Each structure stands twice: as structure tokens, then as C-alpha cells.
């Protein structure tokens, strides 16, 4: 069967299947069980109940505004959840419903785990929103994306990956989808953090086998969920300022070329000479490392990965540094976006951040030098590589 037809088939299955509960994050639970050498069933049972009572179900999702103060109450609008969740239909006024099922679920999955039915075919895999880490944004590496970052992302898609552009979807629907993805991310991150908290702090691991004691207190739940929501509200204050651009000319490009191949930036170590992708790197992204190398397992070892695969994890796939001479950038692709990527690195991936210094030094680069690198990267993209499709 042609992959396209198969994908459509899977999309159709993804759309029709009504699921009454969000699937639990069994992969993360297994990661905790493995790294702490503890049982997690009881903690999972109680965390599932807390999360369900706060955030509802895929058919009727809830934003728990009563536990928040101020801006957090309206970070996600309940009308958006109504429009994005549940079955796909349009009412007489032309309002669309079931938007997430229609546009996203086949790849990102019901809970936003990134392991939807069409995920296995893709490289990179669709994002797991539950870890709360995003790559293509204007904010500091450790910060959440801004709302504008997400709306821009949905408009553009991610070039060179399975993530399509939703430029033809109405502004109102994109806004609802954006709220829904924030909702899924907050919900998923809350589930993860609560599970780790229950296991590490509440003594669930040594509970009796049949213990029915419920150990999670509201105050702890509110604190954990509150901090996650705060990180989303904070994003707009954590934008990376981009200093004035130096003139883009052949001198700047030549300086950028030296820096790219030099000791301090050492871009060549990953991206290869001239960004040709010829450097040999064997690395994985943070989403895959979490259930492999970070807990002492080899990502390429099929036996070691088997229990995680059975719990729903995707097979770890190597991440390749971008072949820059092909000119296909996945982020916003303009000078400012490349400046931010070079200075902050790319969250969730091995692409590192740089130290920005006031004066030229042996330990970091000045903002002018980062601009030189930007110009060099841009010059590479305008000379198409020989393997351009
Ligand atoms: C055909 C598969 C597919 C569909 C459909 C899809 N995505 Fe994606 N999405 C991806 C892939 C693949 C990535 C990872 C791209 C990367 O790592 O650069 C991704 C990444 C993302 C990201 C993370 C961007 C970042 O900065 O890290 C967000 C947010 C996202 N998708 C939202 C959505 C939403 C919302 C929808 C529905 C409107 C959707 N996606 C539909 C495949 C898909
Ligand atoms: C440790 C390895 C490593 C080093 C060092 C590194 N990169 Fe990267 N870079 C990566 C990886 C991996 C990606 C792909 C990230 C992804 O798409 O998920 C990437 C992606 C990029 C991109 C693509 C961004 C986009 O929008 O698609 C640019 C541009 C880039 N790197 C430039 C640089 C420059 C300039 C340097 C030197 C200052 C550098 N990189 C150093 C690993 C590295």
C-alpha cells in the first residue's frame, strides 16, 4: 500500500474512534519505576483520579480555573476546549467542532503523547506535548513558547517534517487548537510531575499491595499545577532579545564561515564542513533519551527498549544535525529565528547554546559574531546542495 493511502486510512481511524478517557502516561511511569526501582501502580491509580477530576476527559475536557488566580484562570478558554474536543461536526452557523480530532490526533495522539496512529512512519516523531518542551520558539531555551510562537507554528507547519501547515484553517479554529494544545501540555506535564512527586515524596512505593489510602493532598496538586501554568504565563517575559544586525555582506559571511569551523562555536563538529551534514554523530533527542540513555539503557538495544515499546513508546530514532546546505529550515527561518537558535540552542535536542560575551573572547561569541554566523548559515542555504529534492 502506498504510504499516503495508509496514512489516510490511519487518519480515518484516528478520527472516528471515540475515546472516553485520556490514556495514562505508562511510558513515563515505567521510566520512574525503572530509575527508582519502585512499583508505581498505586501512585498511578491515584494520580489518574486527580488528573481526571481536574481536567476531565477527551469528550468533555475541563480547564480547572477554580484552582487558579488571575491570568491563569483564562490561559485556556473553555469555549476553545468545546470546539477542539469531541466528535467532528459543524453547526448551522458554520462553527466547527472536534478540531483536534480532525487535524491533529492521528499524529499527536489523544493525550498529546506524540504517539498517534500515524506517528511510526515519521522522522522526527510528532511532538509529545506532555513533557512541556518545544523547539521552535522565540523564548529562552528552558521557557515555554509564546502564544504567537504557537500560532505562527500552526500557520507555517514544520518544513521537512510531517508537521503540516494549517494556514487554511480559520483564525478562530487555530486559536481554539492553540488553547487545546496548551491544555494537553499542562494536563500531561501535571500528570508527570504528580506521579514523580507521589513516588518520591509521598511514600507510595512502600504502600501495602492492597492499600486504598489516598495520599495526595489538594494543596500539593494546586502547587504543582500552578507552577506549570505559571511557566506558560511567563513565556512572554522570557523572549530572547535580538541585538541590532551587523551588515550582511561578504565580509560578514567570511567571518561567519571562520567561526562556524572554529574552536569556540565548533558548529562543524555536528553540522560538518560547510554544513554538509557529513559529521558523524550518534545522538538522540531528549524525548527518547528520557526512557533510554538517561536511565542507563541503550536506545538502540531492542530488548532493553521492549518494555517501553509495549507501554507505548516509539522506537528511539537518531537525531541528525541539520544539513544546512540544503536550505530547509524547520523553525521560522528568518534571521532573528536563526540568531535565537544559535544563541539558545534548540530545546529538546543536542544543539547547544552559546555564551554571549560583550568583548571577543576565547569562551564565547559577541552578538555581532552570532550575526556573522547567521549570515553564513543563510549563505549556505542559498547554494542548493547536490541532494536537494
Ligand atoms: C501528519 C502528522 C502531523 C499532524 C497532522 C500534526 N502534527 Fe504537529 N508535529 C508533527 C511532527 C512530525 C512534529 C515534530 C517537528 C519537529 O520536531 O521539528 C510536530 C510538532 C508539533 C509541535 C511542536 C513544535 C515545537 O516548537 O516543538 C506542535 C505544537 C504541534 N506539532 C502542534 C500540532 C497541532 C495543534 C496539530 C493539529 C492542528 C498538529 N500538530 C498536527 C506532526 C504532525
Ligand atoms: C552537538 C551538536 C550540534 C552543534 C555543536 C551545533 N548544532 Fe546546530 N543542530 C544540531 C541538531 C541535532 C539540529 C537539529 C534539531 C532539530 O531539528 O530537531 C541542529 C539544527 C540547527 C539549525 C536548523 C534550525 C532550523 O530552523 O531548522 C541551524 C541553523 C543550526 N543548527 C546552526 C548551528 C550553528 C550555527 C552552530 C554553531 C554555533 C551549531 N548549529 C552547532 C546539532 C548541533
UniProtKB/TrEMBL annotation:
Keyword line: Heme, Iron, Metal-binding, Signal
Species of the source: Stieleria marina
Q: Where is the signal peptide?
A: 1-17
Per the record's keyword annotation, is Lyase included, yes or no?
no
- Return the Gene3D superfamilies for the record: Cytochrome c-like domain (1.10.760.10)
- Span of domain Cytochrome c: 80-185, 251-381
List GO molecular-function terms, semicolon-separated.
electron transfer activity; heme binding; metal ion binding
Name the record gives this protein: Cytochrome c
Which segments cross the bilayer?
A: none
The answer to whether keyword Metal-binding applies is yes
Which top-level group of life is the source organism from?
A: Bacteria
Database matches in InterPro entries: Cyt_c-like_dom (IPR009056), Cyt_c-like_dom_sf (IPR036909)
Amino acid at each position: 500500500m502506498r504510504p499516503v493511502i495508509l496514512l489516510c486510512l490511519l487518519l480515518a481511524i484516528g478520527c472516528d474512534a471515540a475515546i472516553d478517557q485520556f490514556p495514562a502516561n505508562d511510558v513515563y511511569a515505567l521510566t520512574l519505576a525503572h530509575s527508582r526501582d519502585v512499583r508505581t501502580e498505586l501512585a498511578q491509580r491515584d494520580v489518574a483520579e486527580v488528573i481526571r477530576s481536574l481536567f476531565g476527559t477527551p469528550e468533555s475536557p475541563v480547564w480547572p480555573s477554580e484552582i487558579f488566580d488571575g491570568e491563569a484562570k483564562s490561559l485556556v478558554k473553555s469555549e476553545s476546549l468545546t470546539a477542539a474536543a469531541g466528535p467532528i461536526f459543524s453547526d448551522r452557523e458554520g462553527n466547527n467542532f472536534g478540531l483536534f480530532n480532525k487535524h491533529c490526533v492521528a499524529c499527536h495522539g489523544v493525550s498529546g503523547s506524540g504517539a498517534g496512529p500515524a506517528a511510526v512512519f515519521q522522522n522526527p516523531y510528532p511532538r509529545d506535548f506532555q513533557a512541556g518542551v518545544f523547539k521552535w520558539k522565540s523564548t529562552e531555551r528552558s521557557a515555554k513558547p509564546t502564544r504567537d510562537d504557537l500560532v505562527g507554528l500552526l500557520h507555517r507547519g514544520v518544513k521537512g517534517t510531517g508537521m503540516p501547515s494549517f494556514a487554511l484553517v480559520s483564525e478562530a479554529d487555530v486559536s481554539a487548537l492553540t488553547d487545546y494544545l496548551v491544555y494537553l501540555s499542562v494536563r500531561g506535564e501535571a500528570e508527570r510531575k504528580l506521579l514523580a512527586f507521589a513516588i518520591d515524596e509521598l511514600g507510595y512505593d512502600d504502600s501495602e499491595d492492597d492499600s486504598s489510602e489516598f495520599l495526595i493532598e489538594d494543596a500539593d496538586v494546586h502547587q504543582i499545577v500552578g507552577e506549570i501554568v505559571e511557566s506558560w504565563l511567563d513565556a512572554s517575559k522570557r523572549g530572547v532579545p535580538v541585538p541590532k544586525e551587523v551588515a550582511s555582506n561578504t565580509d560578514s559571511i567570511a567571518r561567519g564561515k571562520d567561526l562556524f569551523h572554529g574552536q569556540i562555536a565548533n558548529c562543524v563538529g555536528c553540522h560538518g564542513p560547510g554544513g554538509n551534514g557529513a559529521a558523524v554523530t550518534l545522538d538522540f533527542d531528549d524525548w527518547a533519551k528520557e526512557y533510554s540513555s538517561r536511565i542507563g539503557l541503550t536506545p538502540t538495544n531492542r530488548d532493553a527498549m521492549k518494555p517501553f515499546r509495549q507501554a507505548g513508546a516509539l522506537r528511539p530514532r537518531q537525531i541528525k544535525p541539520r544539513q544546512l546546505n540544503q536550505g530547509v529550515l524547520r523553525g521560522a527561518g528568518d534571521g532573528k529565528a536563526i540568531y535565537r537558535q544559535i544563541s539558545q540552542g534548540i530545546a529538546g535536542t543536542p544543539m547547544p547554546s552559546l555564551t554571549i560575551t560583550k568583548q571577543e573572547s576565547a569562551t564565547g561569541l559577541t552578538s555581532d559574531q552570532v550575526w556573522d554566523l547567521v549570515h553564513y548559515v543563510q549563505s549556505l542555504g542559498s547554494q542548493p546542495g547536490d541532494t536537494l529534492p
